[in-house]
Amino acid sequence: MIPLALLACGVALDDAGRSTPRPLYPKLDPHTLPHSDELPRPRVRPDPAQAAADAAIISRIAHRPGPHLEVVLLDDPLSPSQIQAWLEARASTPVENRPLDVTRHTPDKPAGGVAWTSQQRQGPGFISGWAEFACSEYEAACVPQAMLLEASPEARVIDLDEALALGGRGVTSRVSGREIMDWERLARAGVDAVHYSMESAYLEGWDAESTVWLSPSKLRAVRLVALDRGQLVRG
């Protein structure tokens, strides 16, 4: 598992040994479950009037990121420039509503060009909530380094509760019949990120404090740090 501030997505060397960002631990991390080409993705035809109304609401309720840094757990010690290139590549891919397969509990999370982070904690202990969850639940995900990222002060962030109130369970999967969040609607409304504080309403697969960035371009890779079982190695 790899959160961007303990990204819930990861970066690692590819099979050819090239240092290229890619999803880490796809079999373990629900954030990085791949799409099946055979599953139709739930989509909604955009409504310009609704988009304008949503944007007006977002301008009132969105808050700016705090002074904390975000974190991404890394399997390989990649440089800030490599992570930045990965973020830019993600930003060029549209946000999509994830398909729901009736054969398993698919997380209610967006797909496409998104990035996941968890806020850096101050003081001793786990560097983030996601690091604590990863190192407690998945030994293979307890990796030895992480990238710290800085969020743009202009980013528009809303809480998961607010996202539910705005995007609601606005899409019905044609595969499972289950209602899911309309993440595409939130992206069209200008939401840059949705934050889950562990005190918000629960969605399937949201297991630790985290932020999903619908606009990965709002993140800047700062520096690589060493970890010891999810805790920052100081000195």
List the helices and strands and how they pair.
Elements: H1 48-61, E1 70-74, H2 80-91, E2 95-97, E3 110-112, E4 115-119, H3 129-137, E5 145-151, E6 157-159, H4 160-167, E7 171-172, E8 179-180, H5 183-188, E9 193-196, E10 210-213, E11 219-228, E12 231-232
Parallel strand pairs: 6-9
Antiparallel strand pairs: 1-4, 1-5, 2-3, 4-10, 5-11, 7-8, 9-10, 11-12
Walk me through the structure.
This protein has about 240 residues and is of the alpha+beta class. The protein has one domain (about 30-230). The protein contains 5 helices and 12 strands. It has helices spanning about 50-60, 80-90, 130-135, 160-165, 185-190, and strands at about 70-75, 95, 110, 115-120, 145-150, 155-160, 170, 180, 195, 210-215, 220-230, 230. The strands form 3 sheets. Strands 6-9-10-4-1-5-11-12 form an 8-stranded mixed β-sheet. Strand 11 (about 220-230) and strand 12 (about 230) form a beta hairpin. The longest helix has 14 residues, at about 50-60.
Strand order of the largest sheet: 6-9-10-4-1-5-11-12
* Largest sheet data: 8 strands, mixed
The number of helical elements comes to 5
Shape: globular
Residue share in helices?
A: 10-25%
**Helix vs. strand class:** alpha+beta
Short description:
This protein is α+β, with helices and mostly antiparallel strands and 235 residues long.
